[in-house]
Amino acid sequence: MTTDTTSRGSARPPVLYLSHGAPPLADDATWTRELADWSGDLARPDAVLMVSAHWEQAPISVSATSGDVPLTYDFWGFPQRYYDVTYDAPGAPEVARSVASLLAGAGETLHQDPTRGLDHGAYVPLKEMYPDADVPVVQLSMPTLDPHRLFELGRRLAPLRDENVLVVGSGFTTHNLGWFNPSAGPDGAPPTPSAEFDHWAAETVAAGDVDSVLDFLAKAPAAREAHPRTEHWAPLYVALGAASVGGDVAGRSVIDGFWFGLSKRSWQFA
After folding, report:
1. According to the model, what pLDDT value does residue 2 have?
2. Adjacent-strand bridge partners of 61
């Protein structure tokens, strides 16, 4: 299925789901290059809407939109240099207004949280993809982890693509921190359940099998091991919903492989 075009006559931006890693992602030369190359292959968006695994809040909310968006250092026990990272991207109030209008059409009210900054699921990958911090960005909370509700949220957000907004779901394709093994190094062999889940995810998303993705706890091998809690898989539901309106839900793997045993597989949806 081909994508629609914007009123400008150019193709709409794709929808992304990326595995965002922890703050030390910045020290991984391979992964940072992969993220930079990915954004370099995309037409420049007018703004980015981020849906991160690290912000669950109801009612649905948007981050600060005035001036440079602050950061939320939502992690503990790391060296000080990770707390000194800055990313002074401008806010995207126009996108927030569009989101509010789209939600109002479904009878929902968008909450504005002027104190909420970008968490590490948002700014860590964006710093590699748009290092000049010159693309406006706003973050949207996940009001639930229910797959069907998040898929429908993505469908409601789909018209943002016609405004040249890049919709990004930011999670991690496998996220069991019990598998994290620093002694093995970032390129160590993954645990078998992580590899099995990654293989299933690659085939299922490439086939555009939305029903199986939404029902992954019942359909995927090692699902509950790969995701003891589902918040890092859930942004994929939003991405699929946004891609499903006039687009293609068959995802193309842009980044694959493992990082300290966790699958960093990331997809682009046309």
Report:
1. 30
2. 111
Give the pair of three-digit tokens for residue 230. 């589902």
Q: Write out the residue range of the structural domain in which residue 193 sits.
A: 15-269
**38 and 66 Cβ atoms separated by less than 8 Å:** no
Pairing of the two strands 111-112 and 47-56: unpaired
Surface-to-core class of residue 3, CB atoms within 10 Å of its CB (0-12 exposed, 13-18 middle, 19+ buried): middle
Helix/strand/coil (H, E, C) string of 28-50?
CHHHHHHHHHHHHCCCCCCEEEE
Instruction: Please tell me the predicted confidence (pLDDT) of residue 241.
Output: 98
Report the C-alpha gap between 226 and 219 in whole angstroms. Answer: 13
- pLDDT for 181 equals 79
The values of phi and psi at residue 132, to 5°, are -80, -5
User: What pLDDT sits at residue 10?
Assistant: 55
CATH of residue 233: 3.40.830.10
Closest among 240, 48, 40, 222 to 158, alpha carbons compared: 240
Number of domains forming the structure of the chain: 1
User: What is the spatial distance between Cα 258 and Cα 260, in angstroms, rounded to a whole number?
Assistant: 6
**pLDDT by 10-residue block (mean), the chain, 270 residues:** 36 95 92 97 98 97 90 92 95 97 93 94 97 97 98 98 98 93 85 97 98 98 97 98 94 96 96
Share in percent of the chain as helix, strand, coil (round to 5)? 40, 20, 40
Q: Is residue 3 part of a domain?
A: no
